[in-house]
Amino acid sequence: MTQNRRRLELAMPWLVIAGLLIVWQVVVVAFGIRPFILPSPVAIYEAFLQYRGPIMEHALYTLSSTMIGFALGIVIGGLLGVIIGSFRLAYAGLYPLLVGINSVPKAAVVPILVVWMGIGQPPAITTAFLLSFFPIAVNVATGLATVEPELEDVLRSLGATPLDILRKVGLPRTMPYFFASLKVAITLAFVGAVISETIASNDGIGYLMIQSASQFRVPLMFAGVFVIAAMGIATYVIFALLERRFTHWATRREQQHFGGG
């Protein structure tokens, strides 16, 4: 029973996607919706096959921009999270600034980045970074804040330094928050890269979609959307597996509840 339920859970996302695509195809055919308004999944697949070469080139460009910006977000966001979570003065001074930066629409920032960096990959990398570092910093800081003051007092009485407490208690306690933030941040990084490419780039999925829209190639636009969604899901799954691998001790009760080992 447990194995069957586990197989069903693994199959559910594919069943839901297949069901939605079937309903989409039936609705488009039944109501005679024209492709330039809403293309059918079959038309989108045909557009992908026809332009798969250019689509994959643009997809790799977007993927590289996203991953570079995301890597910067991990490094800088992680360091800021450690600083904010470890020092109250840093929290008081930096956290409102981070909230302010994160609240600015990134589409409004891209033109400024173009003035500074020119068009192309640098603005896309920077936009991906700006969207990805905030959830990482906040979750790392939150993880450090969950360390009980009583536990810190006991460790200090045993001669532990602040660095010892951070290394042996704070950082391990932060890992579930950190890996959870990576799953959110990677999807936001894709959003940032595509936003920049639609405004200031001659390459990438965002650029491909803008060019397709100007030529009313709506199936090609949707093919670009599906490709970026597939890359986002794939990277999300990778970090979900890493989360399970490195923080299984924090989620084993949930896994047992849902039939895991």
Task: Give structural notes.
This protein is mainly alpha-helical and 261 residues long. The chain has a single domain, classed as MetI-like fold. It is 86% helix and 0% strand.
CATH architecture: Orthogonal Bundle
CATH class: Mainly Alpha
Largest sheet: none
CATH topology: the name is: MetI-like fold
The topology string of helices and strands comes to: HHHHHHHHHHH
> Tell me, what's the shape?
flat
**Mean of the pLDDT scores?**
87
Tell me the Rg in angstroms.
Answer: 22 Å
Task: Give me some keywords for this one.
0% strand, mainly alpha, 261 residues, 86% helix, MetI-like fold, disordered C terminus, single chain
Draw up the topology in text:
Layout: H1 2-31, H2 41-50, H3 52-86, H4 88-103, H5 106-117, H6 121-145, H7 149-157, H8 162-199, H9 205-214, H10 218-246, H11 248-257
Can you describe this structure in just a few lines?
The protein is built from eleven helices and no strands.
